[in-house]
Design brief:
Blueprint: H1 2-13, E1 19-21, H2 30-38, H3 42-47, E2 50-52, H4 63-71, E3 86-90, E4 94-100, E5 103-105, E6 108-111, E7 117-121, E8 124-130, H5 132-153, H6 159-172, E9 179-187, E10 190-196, E11 202-204, E12 207-210, H7 214-224, H8 231-248, E13 256-262, E14 265-273
Helix pairs in contact: 5-6, 7-8
Length: 317
């Protein structure tokens, strides 16, 4: 057992010329720490100086290693880039949410008509930007919890309740759950609109945008927003903000989805507006006129000596 410990120790120490041992460093096992403190083989001390300290803190022993690998040409892993334009605005009687429908996988368009406006409750919907699996999972989880809460209390779900569930869950994972959300809904306290960042911070705003095309959409909001808008004015403003993201951001594209939430109900307008239409329509099937392709050689084979063998008929009883 001790021999295996020292073998592991030598492999670890080969990555760095200095090895820190601390009672407060959780990354070193207790058995290995005891072995280092009591055994201290001479060959190990000669080649790898060990600094014994009882101070805690952060460990940056891999920083030099990563810099060395990068200097030698190794390609370091990078984050996965995503693209979306989502937005929302509060009007006189409710909230309008909007989103594009392009789903990307790196530089590839994976889905041209995906749904980015997620159901939370009958009176609450949420637009998601970031990793599709994360946004779908988080919104489904909160939706299920709100439904159970509604059964237990016997009252309509509150927007602030869903906001609290979302922010607490995302804060717990410190941004590793890639879900940037625009949450909107109407409850007994009126219309509400919030933004939820992947790290768990939130904002309450009269209009909001998120995603890679958020700056383009925000420019439209700042130019056209006004208080106490009508439903039609709010829908037009949100639609134009999503169009701005689609036309100016490579990560956004395809169509515009809208979701109108009022105290009377929710109207989910899937593919509210089609953008980037094709300039031509292909006729199916394609009919070619005779003589389009020149005939170079022609051969006709007669079927006189062909024997057709039929199998037994299938028993249908």
């Amino acid at each position: 057992h001790v021999a295996s410990i020292w073998k592991i120790t030598a492999e670890v120490l080969a990555q760095s010329s200095v090895f820190y041992v601390s009672r407060f460093n959780c990354w070193i096992t207790r058995s290995l720490r005891v072995a280092l403190q009591h055994a201290k083989p001479c060959w190990l001390l000669d080649h790898f100086p060990i600094i014994m300290t009882s101070e805690g803190g952060f460990d940056f022993s891999l920083v030099k290693r990563n810099a060395l690998l990068e200097a030698k040409g190794a390609k370091m892993p990078s984050h996965w880039k995503t693209g979306t334009t989502i937005s929302g605005v509060v009007f006189k009687d409710g909230v309008v949410l909007g989103a594009d429908t392009r789903s990307t996988a790196g530089t590839t368009v994976a889905d041209k008509n995906c749904a980015k406006i997620h159901f939370i409750a009958d009176n609450i919907y949420c637009c998601g930007a970031g990793t599709a699996a994360d946004t779908e999972s988080v919104t489904d989880m909160v939706s299920a919890q709100l439904q159970l809460h509604k059964y237990a209390t016997g009252r309509q779900s509150r927007v602030i309740t869903s906001l609290t569930m979302l922010k607490q869950h995302l804060f717990k994972y410190q941004g590793h759950v890639s879900a940037a959300l625009v949450l909107g809904g109407v409850d007994i306290n009126g219309p509400h609109l919030f933004t939820v960042y992947p790290h768990g911070s939130t904002d309450a705003l009269p209009f909001a945008t998120m995603g890679s095309g958020s700056l383009n959409a925000m420019a439209v909001f700042e130019a056209g927003y006004k208080d106490n808008m009508t439903k039609e004015e709010a829908m037009s403003l949100v639609c134009r903000s999503i169009e701005s993201g689609i036309y100016n951001d490579l990560g956004s594209g395809s169509n515009v989805d809208l979701c109108v939430i009022t105290k009377d109900g929710t109207d989910y307008l899937r593919n509210y507006k089609f953008l980037q239409h094709k300039t031509y329509q292909r006729v199916h099937p394609v009919v070619y006129t005779k003589g389009t392709a020149p005939i170079i050689k022609e051969r006709i084979k007669l079927l006189k000596n062909v024997v057709v063998t039929e199998g037994d008929s299938m028993d249908m009883s």
